[in-house]
Amino acid sequence: MFRHSIRTFLVSLCALTAASQAAPALALAAPASPHPQFQAARALRAQTLSDLNTAIKGEAFAYASYSLFGTQADGAAHVAVGRLFRTTAQTELNEHLHEAATLAGLVGTNAANLRQAINGETYENQVMYRGFAAEARQDGDAKAAELFTEIAADEGRHRDAFRTALAAVTSGHGTVPAPSAARTVAVPAGLPQVRAARTKANLDTAMHGEALAYAKYMNFAAHAKQSGNSALARLWEGTAAVELHEHFAGEAVLAGRVGTTKENLDKAITGERSEATTLYPGFAKQATAVGDTAAANFFRNTAADEARHAAAFQSALNRLR
Ligand SMILES: [Fe+2]
Ligand SMILES: [Fe+2]
Ligand SMILES: [Fe+2]
Ligand SMILES: [Fe+2]
After folding, report:
1. What is the 242 CA–ligand 2 centroid distance (Å)?
2. Which of 122, 123, 166, 209 is the most buried (most CB within 10 A)?
């Protein structure tokens, strides 16, 4: 009975993974199990899981943005602001995102993580970036069309490297490939270099996807290291570097994501306040209502952290004036 249930559980998990191939969202939904022995594993309600995924995406985007804002502040000789952006970025990634990922069960076995990444890279290569490139061309945003086309090709290479790694991990034969080197793109303060609202929206979607890929792959790298597969850890980290320093950064240039130090602080304060007063308190309320206590505590504590981030950015802004 127990073995049969395990099989049923795995089958429903596979069906879920297949369903998730159609969308860039994380494949994290909890399978409904009619078997009482899995009730404990099905601790989170669908709404809580969805809210945790929203949190993961937002935290990944904050990490990636603050890293760029920190570099801009350093270049403008606002060294203390640069330090504040970097330490806040670390909190978003290593505390907020890490805790949400743990609650949501983001990280699985090395093979499961590779399958999740192959699905994401395939979607980006075949659907998302091809579509964005075609739309940018139609809208007369040639630079964006060119960048989306280049990135689509990179994602195809990532998928192929992960497939080779998966074969090595599952068969015990062959080697995990070395990652390709990241070409770091500088992101100076600047205005958007695209015209169409649709290109701007696509750039925003793409940047969120790249920031999420970076954060996921760094979590997968930590798991690979713990499990003793250092070659796989290197592939995750090297690919993560491409997603952040090349793809996210290249898109950030066209999107005009980075402004002056003052503008970046303003953007950060707006985001932190909205998380502190609206987003996380709303998630905490929903999680409390359905009895997801650990998630409710996480959302409540994170709301308080974001309020502190907003206050720290505000006092940095006041000192700039
Ligand atoms: Fe955060
Ligand atoms: Fe990729
Ligand atoms: Fe990418
Ligand atoms: Fe924050």
Report:
1. 7
2. 209
- For the residues 59-83, what does the mean pLDDT come to? 98
Q: What are phi and psi of 40, to 5 degrees?
A: -65, -40
Residues, beta carbon < 5 Å, ion ligand 2: 121, 155, 158
- Residues of the chain within CATH 1.20.1260.10 domain(s) are 47-106+260-321, 109-258
Please report which residue ranges of the chain form alpha helices under DSSP H.
2-20, 46-75, 79-90, 98-104, 110-123, 129-138, 142-171, 197-226, 230-241, 249-255, 261-274, 280-289, 293-320
Q: With respect to CATH, is domain 109-258 assigned 1.20.1260.10?
A: yes
DSSP 101-145: HHHHT----HHHHHHHHHHHHHHIIIIIHHHHHHHHHHTT-HHHH
What are the residues whose beta carbons fall under 8 Å from the beta carbon of 301, sequence distance 6 or more? none
CA angle 28, 30, 35 (to 5 degrees): 155
pTM of the model: 0.87
What CATH number was assigned to the domain covering residues 47-106+260-321? 1.20.1260.10
Ligand nearest to the CA of 272: 4
- How far does residue 98's CA lie from ligand 2's centre (Å)? 20
How far does the centroid of ligand 3 lie from the alpha carbon of residue 182, in Å?
Answer: 11
Q: How far is the CA of 229 from the centre of ligand 1 (A)?
A: 30
Ligand 4 centroid to Cα of residue 308, in Å, is 8
- 81 CA to middle of ligand 1, Å? 18
Ligand at shortest distance from the CA of 235: 2
Q: Which of 115, 125, 210, 215 is nearest to 162 (CA)?
A: 115
**CA 59 to CA 63: how far, in whole Å?**
6
pLDDT, tens digit, 9 for 90 and up, residues 217-270: 999 999 999 999 999 999 999 999 999 999 999 999 999 999 999 999 999 999
Residue pair 158/239 in contact by the 8 Å Cβ criterion? yes
Residue whose token pair is 């860039």: 24
State residue 241 phi and psi, 5-degree precision.
-60, -40
